[in-house]
Amino acid sequence: MFRRLSLSLAKRTTPASRRSFGSKSGGAEGGAAAPPPSLQRRTLESLLAQNPSAVSGKSVLVRVDYNVPLSKKATPIAVSDETYVLLSTVVTHLTSDFRVSFSRIRESIPTLLALSKAGAKTVLASHLGRPAGTGFDPKLSLAPVAERLKQLLSKSGGGAGAVHTVNDCVGPAVTQAVTQQMKSGDFLLLENVRFHADEEKNAPDFARRLAVDTQAAVFVNDAFGAAHRAHASTSGVRQFISGPAVAGTLMAKELAFLQKVRDSPARPFVAVMGGAKVSDKITVIEALIQRSGLSTLVIGGGMAFPFLKAMGVGVGSSKCDDKQYVMRCEYWYFGI
After folding, report:
1. What does pTM read for this prediction?
2. Which of 169, 219, 249 is closest to 55 using CA atoms?
3. Phi and psi at residue 302, in whole multiples of 5°?
4. Which fold has domain 4-28+265-334?
5. Contact of 241 with 219, CB cutoff 8 Å
6. One digit per residue, pLDDT tens: the chain, 336 residues?
7. Domain extent listing, the chain
8. How many C-alpha atoms does 103 have within 13 Å on its Cβ side?
9. Residue 19 CA: distances (Å) to CA of 84, 116, 190, 310, 334
10. What contacts 16, CB < 8 A, 6 or more positions away?
């Protein structure tokens, strides 16, 4: 059951100069509504603007986030990523209802079209679900994602190239697909990187194989939802690619939005956060409260339990982050 906890923080905020319990810094990092020079120099858009032929004929490894819902009722398994949610009451300053698409595949299309138009051989790496890391699992294969990607690219009107697939993310088959099957403008969707346990371990040898076997000359990170993880395909691979490493279109857009929210949010400022754990979001909460003057925080999912526990509410056998995060929740809720 979805549990929601709404905290009014108007009287509990602390000045930016006051450090939070257990936090080394009250700051946060992000992009800008108009990306600052440091970000502008590291985006795909700026790379192609400075040198339109920067990726022409080259293999470009793009980390995307295609960890999308799959419809298990369909035969064969199909992507159910076209979910639309009606928002009207969550954000207080909205004047009318609107529908928001949460399609991660659809959001990656601008980056892919830009690379295809520039003549790149675009190799896409992603994870899907939480496989055991012991090899191929048909239930978590990216094959359904490839079919949905083909549909979206064909409807884009951007003249994108063909979408190829391969049964692994490293190995001779990957190199053969890049060198013998792909043409400039084409795409190659690698198989689920988490079929290899070394992905989440950020093992250098696995990261090197990702770079070498795909013959990547440029790295583009467009996986905003996975960028906080130091995994082989998001972090480690960079050191084995000699060319530029840039943010994709989606990544740049998300960073710009976060910068605007952090520095000049609309008022009243309400944040809605959810997920299984508060441990990887507590610093974001603290930064929002200290730097953005957050007035109300709505928390859903498993990450609500540490706050409920801090308030003295029993959580039974529900998953709850360890004691240090309960103490930090107490700090923010009670101001102690």
Report:
1. 0.74
2. 219
3. -65, -25
4. Rossmann fold (3.40.50)
5. yes
6. 334 455 544 434 333 333 333 333 333 333 334 454 455 558 999 999 999 999 999 999 999 999 988 766 555 666 655 544 433 333 333 333 333 334 789 999 999 999 999 999 999 999 999 999 999 999 999 999 999 999 999 988 877 889 999 999 999 999 999 999 999 999 999 999 999 999 999 999 999 999 999 999 999 999 988 888 899 999 999 999 999 999 999 999 988 888 887 788 888 888 888 877 777 777 777 777 777 777 888 888 888 887 787 777 787 777 776 555 555 555 555 543
7. 4-28+265-334, 37-252
8. 17
9. 39, 47, 44, 20, 15
10. 26, 290, 291
CATH hierarchy code of domain 37-252: 3.40.50.1260
Q: Which amino acid is at 13?
A: T
Q: Do domains 4-28+265-334 and 37-252 have the same CATH topology?
A: yes
Cis status of the peptide bond prior to 76, with omega within 30 of 0: yes
Whole-angstrom Cα distance, residue 135 to residue 154?
A: 31
Instruction: Round to whole Å and give the CA distance between 198 and 216.
Output: 19
How many CA within 13 A on the CB side of residue 145? Answer: 30
